[in-house]
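This section describes the prediction task in plain terms. A model, or a person checking by hand, is given the sequence of a single protein chain and must write out its three-dimensional structure as a string of tokens. No templates, partner chains or ligands are provided. The sample shown here is typical of the held-out split.
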Amino acid sequence: MQLPPRINVLGVGISVLNLDTAVATLAAAVAENCRGHVCVTGVHGVIESQSDPELRRIHNHSLLTTPDGMPMVWLGRWAGHSSMGRVYGPDLMERMFAWSQGSGATHFFYGGNTGVAEELKARVERQFPGIRIVGTYTPPFRPLTGEEDRLLVAQVAAVRPDFFWVGLSTPKQERFMAATGPRLQAKVLLGVGAAFDFHAGRVKQAPRWIQRSGFEWLYRLVQEPRRLWRRYLRNNPLFVWKLLGQWTGLRRYPMD
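The expected answer:
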């Protein structure tokens, strides 16, 4: 299948997408039995990829790397892609759930704190009657043991989901998809981070006007300062500094 083009953001290829084209691409991937992973990426993922070549490779060899944050959207539009729109993890989940009500596509939830995946399943089944959620798995806060890994592979093989949603953090979820995805009998793996907590009702999302403003990071920082302060206060200025280097041609960032 033909995938959308990408823009180069500090060596990370961000797919030229909006929600409609993302849904259409994922629907086509399932229909054509394409396998792969989807990275939902903003400033945090791009900056983490600067010091982690393997993480950058995972982003650049994805089925899609979506513009999760408004800075990715603005950069795409400045590059001439006027149709570029935010493909935010929670919104993408909702759109795919709605689409799968009619298509019969199946879903599996992997990640979250204890009980989150089950709460998410119950809420989604109430909101989208007839949706087929065929399994959940809450991993421990450590790498899976060999036995746990085998049990997960067997559980997924028994249900063969079309969409395997991964609710971990970056870069943990990207590494999981790259390492474990090829052994899972699932078509498309999607790393959506905090979307599990949002849709399960454990964390409140920012109002839409804040999301569109590009200041959602500040809203989340106020919500979870102890966990997020280092990420945002380091990554955001570093992103702007490196982007200036790319724009002026002082630094090259190949999409290797």
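For orientation: Residues 2 and 134 are 29 Å apart (CA to CA).
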